[in-house]
Amino acid sequence: MEVYFDNSATTRPYDEVIDKMxxxxxxxxxxxxxxxxxxxxxEHIINDSVTEITKVLKCLPEEIVxxxxxxxxxxxxxxxxxxxxxxxxxxxVVSGVEHASVSAVMQFLIRxxxxxxxxxxxxxxxxxxxxxxxxxxxxxxxxxxxxxxxEIGSIMPxxxxxxxxxxxxxxxxxxxxxxxxxGKIETIPxxxxxxxxxxxxxxxxxxxxxxxxxxxxxxxxxxxxxxxGQQKNxxxxxxxxxxxxxxxxxxxxxxxGFQDKIxxxxxxRDRLVEGLTQIEDVYCNTDVRSxxxxxxxxxxxxxxxxVMLHALEDKGIYVSSGSxxxxxxxxxxxxLSAIGLDKKKIESTLRFSFGEQNTFEEVDYAVKxxxxxxxxxxxxxxx
Length: 383
Fold this sequence. Notes:
The protein has about 375 residues and is an alpha/beta fold.
């Protein structure tokens, strides 16, 4: 049996997404900037995807900018804001548990003369609105916060953070990294008080290399890619029409029967957590009552995460040791450190992440396999 429990790293595209992309590449291959019929057909395909996205976000079509994915969306939002507003100030506030596509940008901006304040989180991985507001100053130009943490599934109170921040300084831009939350919980920018919101297509059964940035109408944002002025001068370059088409299909399918899908994902996650935490020295680092429905961070004391990961891989079970973007690095997880886990727990932690295609049968197989593997691996390590 093959069991894929690494859906936070990437998801398997829907068959309909693949079919749509192949069709576009074969039949609708025109450049959307061209004035002839082939170009207009390609433009219509882009507009169809915009329509699907705006239905979900309850926003305007002109507020959507297509990108190559979450990393570019985060870079565009943060660097674009910093460049557009540098005359107003050079101070940025961000949570201390951001994804590398945010934290690395902050390091770049620090080298460029900006000042960044990092907000700590509690043991469940959540920062308070008050702590963000306290850090905001007159020269603060941007506050950036992830919605769902990609390693432990904690949900930030983004609507409350936005309200508190803007009460302190109404001119501050508020950016939400919704890469793990879009398609898992409600992500309506207006309800969240978000001026900018980043989304990645391959996290919701769309293609890799697809994504978008929501930019509130009237917001001043400097482009970071220059050229032919596509997408209202916000992101130059010929649009990736097949990927945009696939993203539109993925969004439509993800939100068809949304509540039932999320309940299933949550039930699958809960069944795995319940089964694993009955094993001696196995701990769940995710607050399943208040956290995201699709993520469980589990520590298996006595076995290094990489050893457990490959032992499970040999049994056809695929998981990750933290964020996929940093799982190949030896550096300790900043998120697990921030929530106060000791070194032994950090070194033995795996992330299980679920999608609508996962089943209870797969969970039962994984729990049974881990129950069999753990004593052997622990004995080997101790021996």
